[in-house]
Design goal:
9 strands; alpha+beta
């Protein structure tokens, strides 16, 4: 069918329009690429809903948040060297949240020897209130590869959610990042 449409349109449009049409068809085929196989995932232990571009792995490990050791549950998938992850922790007391948020953000940026390009903070007004911090950072891996970090840190009560896209700077797709971040939902 695509070939028929192309044949019809090449008679009707001048050369420039044919090139434009072929480019559009090529982009449509790339957009349908199975590279990203989005699926809805529900968090275990600490509830959340997210869309991952591949089947994620789930694991837990202790992390040190500037002197506070907690267990972080991580749900993560990787596509072409880019990691999409949601980490969750539950603290003993809500008063620990501000320091833990700052420690998480600092640790993530330091992991890529990076610098912040932008940071936005929002305070929630819903039933669970909460606070979120969105960052965009650039840095380098130990091998010198340019890296980009897009992260959202969400606090609700004693829980913190760390939503991350991390990978080679040139590999992070704007559309994939938007899909991942816009689909993330902590419990309401």
């Amino acid at each position: 069918m695509t070939a028929t449409i192309l044949a019809m349109n090449t008679r009707l449009f001048p050369r420039f329009s044919r090139c434009f049409l072929l480019t559009l068809v090529g982009l449509a085929l790339v957009a349908c690429s199975p590279k990203y196989d989005w699926r809805e995932v529900h968090g275990t232990g600490i509830p959340f809903v997210a869309m991952f571009p591949a089947k994620p792995s789930v694991f837990s490990r202790p992390v040190n948040l500037d002197g506070l050791t907690v267990t972080m549950a991580m749900t993560a998938a990787e596509i072409d060297g880019t990691t999409f992850a949601v980490g969750t922790v539950e603290l003993a007391d809500a008063s620990q949240v501000p320091a833990a948020l700052t420690a998480m953000k600092t640790a993530m940026v330091n992991n890529i020897d990076g610098k912040l390009n932008s940071e936005k903070t929002a305070v929630g007004t819903g039933r669970n209130g909460g606070k979120s911090i969105n960052i965009d950072a650039s840095g380098r891996r130990g091998n010198g590869q340019a890296m980009r970090l897009l992260a959202r840190f969400v606090a609700q009560g004693k829980r913190i959610y760390q939503v991350v896209v991390l990978g080679p700077e040139a590999s992070i797709s704007h559309e994939a990042g938007d899909t991942f971040f816009s689909a993330f939902r902590p419990p309401q």
